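Researcher: I'd like a structural prediction for the single chain below. Treat it as a standalone chain; there are no partners to consider.
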Amino acid sequence: MNLQEKPFYLTDEQVQWVEDTLAALTPEQKVGQLFCVMGQDFGSEELKTLVKDYNVGGILYRPAPAKDIRAWFEPLDEAAKIPLLKAANLEEGGTGGLSDGTYFGWPLTVAATDDIGMMEKFAKVCAVEGESVGINWTFSPVCDLDLNYRNPITNVRTCGSDFERVKSFCSQYVRTLQENGMAACAKHYPGDGVDFRDQHLHPTYNSLSAQEWYDSYGAIYQQLIADGLMSVMVGHIVQPNVAMDINPDLRFEDCLPGSLSKELLTGVLREKFGFNGVITTDATIMSGFTQAMPRKEAIPTAIMAGCDMVVFTTGFYEDYQYMLDALSSGFLTEERLDEALMRILALKAKVAGKAPTSSMLPEAKQWQAECADKCVTLVKNNQDVLPLTPEKYPLIRLVTLGKDEITEGCLAAPGDPDYPIESSMTAIAEELLQAAGFETERFDIEKEELHGTKDLPKNRLTLYLANCEHASNQTAVRLFWAKKHALDVPRHGEEEPYIFVSFSNPYHLQDVPRVKTYINAYSCHRPMIEAVIAKLLGKSEFRGVSPVDAFCGLPDARL
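Model: Treating it as a single chain, here is the predicted structure.
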């Protein structure tokens, strides 16, 4: 293993540090380095014990205020014999690591600008804001292809369904992020977005043929590896056709999720693609991992299959002992353990041990607004309502679907004007419309009753604002209408005008196929709402390019 070549490019001194550090570790300390734990799962004193006595290799804190993240890491840095990998999910901007960071927008937001330069700005915000609290390793980019509009977890977390766009945008993200001193960890190998199910709930399947996979997902990973990608996160996703291509004796029923598959990890990533960086599991608390085999076998099997680190545990002490037992029995070999440690330590030599920078990007909010302006996509406009004017539609009725509460502001102290505050998507839209001279009213299902159409207001337009977010541990991202006769459905589309705006899911046309004017905005924050309203009023052009098939392959959705 040559640590002076891609992806680590270590100096002689750094290589010496890796070799000396490895030689000084006991078997127990080596096993501890294999684990990245969730910081909030433990009390502060117990976490110090895990770092000092169990020698855990990495920690991820869920987003919290920057001052808290810095304060939590400080005693752990003092306790650590080996610098820590400090992880975050910087998928949507600085807010993936610090709650008062910049919510730039989900990757699909950036992809919809069709501007590779915007991805560079996005990645720089992620790197700089993450490093401001000491984060040195991000579980991003999501380089899945969103090929199945029913998938509840990929969605706006991806750069879309177009292979070339996903490859180029993820490549730009990795290069920019790592040029700014942070290690990227591309996910979710072997690739989510084909299945319509969620790997958090059970193993899912990437069912492409082997050649289709090599030409798409495989080509994306090969590009990122060529770019110097430092690490890969492996999902609990089965790719049977590729696994059986590597091992013709393998049967479909014996194919394992990527996190446990020697064929996909050692056979493809290591041997076929030549990847020499760190491979880590996705969270092993997920049912996609726990349902694959008994945990006592699964934890060491992940390492023997080719993973170097285990992310999150259902019980650290239990998993730690499973790894020690496997080492003692010979199932986990010393050779494989040392190989994993060499890569972990090489990654640490490259990015760990640096103090928080405390520096910020003054351009972050400007770039966030620029991205919002460029991404908003007019998917469908089959009626003559735009631009909206008070003369044409003096009354705007607002119908809210999904989550109305949003967070405003970024990177400021309590009391400062920009400090994150809870706000309302509907209230912001209402404020902007009223300032433009419109009268507004909010749809109230309790007051609404079944009625005919002869008394429909002639001067009213109904504006739907949908913020139905993707999330793990759910089976669908769909619109769910009111139990009271579904009275919030746009039922009179031939007799009164409706505009539907989605702020967080590009696929709502499957549920409102007859809406004549449909807009995708991909993320929900104030600059995005401002951009949408400006475009509805004709003050700004629609510039977004849809990164996915927003019509969901449904011919009637185009009517």
